[in-house]
Design a protein that fits this description.
By secondary structure, the protein is an alpha+beta fold. Helix content is 28%, strand content 27%. It is built from eleven helices and 17 strands. The strands form three sheets. Strands 9, 10, 11, 12, 13, 14, 15, 16 and 17 form a nine-stranded antiparallel beta sheet that branches. A four-stranded parallel beta sheet has the order 3-2-1-4, with helices on both faces. Helix 1 crosses helix 10 and helix 3 runs antiparallel to helix 4. It is globular. Bound molecules: adenosine monophosphate. The site of adenosine monophosphate (AMP) has 12 residues, from strand 14.
């Protein structure tokens, strides 16, 4: 039996560890928080910071391959590990996705359209960039933003930008042009060690307060738009020499054109539906990819809707339990803080 190291102990690590166990792999979680969601179902946990040198040495000694469940793993730690054993997805994918400017430059370099953007390093940069975009745009920190945190939307030229750069922390930022999208979709795709690529169907996503609320499959898009999403994901996976599952988010314009928003070099919340509506979920697909097993084809047997259970939503559990054709997945978190992802439910259409 072989051992997979997973950096990060959240719900994504938990679902990866569960999928790994079904294929006879052992898992070791590297995570500073004791009794984290992933460690509850894994074989063991190394309780240490993600860049702790001793912990990384132990992980390298005890594992056959290392993966991660979030994109803010320190690139140095991933590169250091990759000198001793395979680290999948490749550390280059972390580097590209950790900085919104680098990410957009990379996507544009792959021939994939993104929002127009300016790098912002001062209030003066911001004012100049807003003038270029007729006062409209979305200001985001370049690094460490998630679930809509570290963002400010400028709706029109009357929106006062005074102090906006400092309000976001005065850190390197990006102003993106405002994309007048009709809907948002994402695609989950995988690339194996042998270069085989497999894509799931695109999902249509609705966000509430910057957090994913529902993913619906099939998305209300035509075949050409779905194919464009598959081609974009394929281009990204190939350019990175990627191994594992990737999540890629897009805005869809009224004419069906796709504008890429971001890539996540890991299993993705908008792919949780695959657990209920596909024979092989994104979690198993990732484990298959990084361990050199054959990929599944990614086809679905049902349409479905996945809804996140956030904070107090967990109180509605009896309602979900009574719902026909609904699969519930809880993450083992004891405290239901506002905005915290406690679980999800997927019901087949
Ligand atoms: P992000 O953190 O980049 O995923 O952004 C969170 C959400 O904000 C997205 O899912 C969109 O709903 C919205 N958003 C982000 N960037 C833009 C943009 N450039 N134009 C319009 N809406 C955006």
């Amino acid at each position: 039996m072989r051992t997979i190291g997973i950096i990060g102990g959240g719900q994504l690590g938990r679902m990866l560890a569960m999928a790994a166990a079904r294929l006879n792999f052992r898992t070791i979680i590297l995570e500073p928080q004791v009794d984290c969601p992933a460690a509850q179902v894994a074989n063991s946990q190394i309780v240490a910071a993600y860049d702790d040198p001793t912990a990384l040495e132990r992980l390298a000694a005890e594992c056959d391959v290392v993966t991660y469940e979030f994109e803010n793993v320190p690139v140095d730690a991933a590169e250091r590990l990759s000198r001793s054993l395979p680290v999948f997805p490749p550390p280059k994918a972390l580097e590209v996705s950790q900085d919104r400017v680098t990410e957009k430059q990379f996507l544009n370099g792959c021939g994939i359209e993104t929002a127009r953007f300016h790098a912002i390093d001062s209030q003066a940069d911001l004012e100049q960039a807003l003038a270029d975009f007729s006062g409209k745009g979305v200001l985001k920190t370049r690094r460490l933003g998630y679930d809509g945190k570290g963002q400010r939307v400028f709706k029109d030229a009357t929106d006062d930008a005074t102090g906006a750069y400092a309000a976001l922390g005065g850190v390197p930022s990006i102003l993106e042009s405002f994309v007048p999208f009709e809907r948002e979709i994402s695609i989950i795709a995988a690339r194996g060690i042998d270069g085989t690529i497999s894509c799931y169907d695109p999902a249509e996503n609705i966000h509430r307060n910057g957090i994913l609320h529902t993913s619906t499959v099939p998305a209300s898009i035509n075949g050409a738009t779905a194919e464009a999403a598959r081609l974009a994901a394929t281009a990204v996976l190939t350019a990175l020499g990627y191994v594992g599952v990737i999540g890629m988010e897009f805005f869809v314009l009224a004419d069906g054109t796709l504008i890429a928003n971001e890539i996540a070099p890991r299993v993705h919340n908008s792919g949780h539906w695959t657990e209920a509506a596909c024979v092989v979920s994104q979690f198993e697909q990732h484990i298959r990819a990084i361990s050199g097993l054959a990929l599944a084809d990614g086809s679905k047997h049902s349409g479905c809707i996945m809804q996140n259970l956030i904070g107090d939503d967990i109180d509605d559990l009896p309602v979900w339990l009574a719902k026909p054709n609904a699969m519930i997945h809880l993450y083992g978190k004891t405290e239901a803080r506002p905005g915290r992802k406690m679980g999800h439910v997927t019901w087949l259409a």
